[in-house]
């Protein structure tokens, strides 16, 4: 009991318990289409290892967080959205984090305003 991965939405997607539209996968990283896209490209990139978010990340997670971003760059290349895209980590409920398994949003395919809301 008390296994945080049991009820974690993104761990359930990783286990195939909840369907997703896979975009990319390697040994450490999985990427899938966001269910409620905010741009023509809106992909979520997650480490296969569960941790809640950037606040909870440990030194040993640094490479995984980097791998998620490099996967985002690769997907952006494949999608030909390199004129301008954004990678976003929402950290904490006040910033809109609603799923507590670290995920990088890749947003692109339209012009993006700054600062974000
Ligand atoms: P957050 O708000 O935590 O930064 O991002 C969570 C993201 O997960 C949201 O953009 C939301 O649309 C997406 N999401 C929530 N539930 C599901 C789901 O069941 N499947 C997929 N593919 N995306 C989801
Ligand atoms: Zn998880």
SSE string, helices as H and strands as E? HHEEEHEE
Q: According to CATH, what is the topology?
A: HIT family, subunit A
Oligomeric category: single chain
Number of helices: 3
On the 0-100 scale, what is the average pLDDT?
97
How many domains in all?
1
Helix content: 10-25%
**N- and C-termini, Cα separation:** 38 Å
Rg, Å, rounded: 14 Å
Beta-strand content: 15-25%
In short:
The chain is an alpha+beta fold and 117 residues long.
What does this molecule look like?
The chain is an alpha+beta fold. It has a single domain, classed as HIT-like (HIT family, subunit A, 2-Layer Sandwich). It has 3 helices and 5 strands. It has helices spanning 4-7, 9-14, 62-79, and strands spanning 22-25, 29-33, 41-47, 85-88, 104-108. A hairpin with a 7-residue loop joins strand 2 (29-33) and strand 3. The chain is globular. It starts with a helix and ends in a 9-residue tail after the last strand. The model has no long low-confidence stretch (mean pLDDT 97). Bound molecules: guanosine-5'-monophosphate and zinc ion. Residues 9, 18, 20, 32-36, 44, 90, 96-99 line the site of guanosine-5'-monophosphate.
């Amino acid at each position: 009991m008390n296994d945080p991965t049991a009820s974690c939405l993104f761990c359930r997607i990783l286990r195939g318990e909840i369907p997703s539209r896979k975009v990319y996968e390697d040994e450490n990283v999985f990427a899938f289409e966001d269910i409620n896209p905010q741009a023509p490209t809106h992909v979520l990139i997650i480490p296969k290892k569960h941790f809640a978010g950037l606040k909870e990340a440990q030194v040993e997670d640094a490479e995984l967080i980097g791998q998620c971003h490099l996967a985002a760059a690769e997907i952006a290349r494949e999608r030909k959205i390199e004129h301008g895209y954004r990678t976003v980590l929402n950290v904490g409920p006040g910033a809109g984090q609603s799923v507590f398994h670290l995920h990088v949003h890749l947003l692109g395919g339209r012009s993006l305003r700054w600062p974000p809301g």
